[in-house]
Give the backbone structure.
Amino acid sequence: MPDFPIVDTHVHLANPGRIDYPGLAAAGPLNRPFSIADFDEARGGVEVEAFVFMEVNATDDHIADEAAWVSELAANDTRLRGIVAGAPLDRGSAARDTLEQLAHYPLVKGVRKLIQGNDVGYCIEPAFIEGVKLLPAFGYSFDACIHHPQLENTIKLVRQCPEVRFILDHIGKPAIKDQGFEPWKAQMKQLASFENVVCKISGVATEADHDNWSREDLKPYIEHVIECFGFDRVIYGGDWFVLSLASTYPRWIETLDWAIEGCSEADKRKLYCENGKAFYRLG
């Protein structure tokens, strides 16, 4: 367990009474409100210095309201220092209206439009690329949330958007449950060759067998990501509340800490704290 306060760059919160989340309606135990108090209970003894809210795929007309709600929460909790908001980037230039609305909320540091759940070619459609290219003008990064079959086209997206800062969520969601490695391993190495891309070590347990995973199942994937990106370009994420489907918060961080056992104190601080602050400009 880290012996210093960490920065969690991937915390979901939900307010179904105010915001429409189509994806949560069919998500069983996740279809309920999730508060900062719930997060604090879940993290147990893990000390969190700061965290970033990650959008929960609200409907397009509720994106700005989600940013407003989270900004209200942050006014009462100084640990909440950043927002990754939703944005309809698949609308191309028409996404500018939403980005301009988000610009009214200073805590918005980046945006996400889910790629997972769509066709493998979704992220290289001309409109999507056009939408992503809008982000530098607003100072926003892009969180790429994909399944591993979409990694090849994610590389094509990155190649066409050299001015955009990308962060790959959940290490690209490899086939951990089946212990599948290729072509994910080779494609991750290729993705890491782009200097405008960093990788979020998050969501790993949820790609394994939820009821029967072991830390040994996860370790080779974590090690490969660090081998590809190095400790200067990896960032910790808890992925709570989705994490609760497969693990407790302390178990996930204990597993990650075990997987990087032997790394230097400086590298550990980069992963758990410094890189997240720098990428999301948390101050």
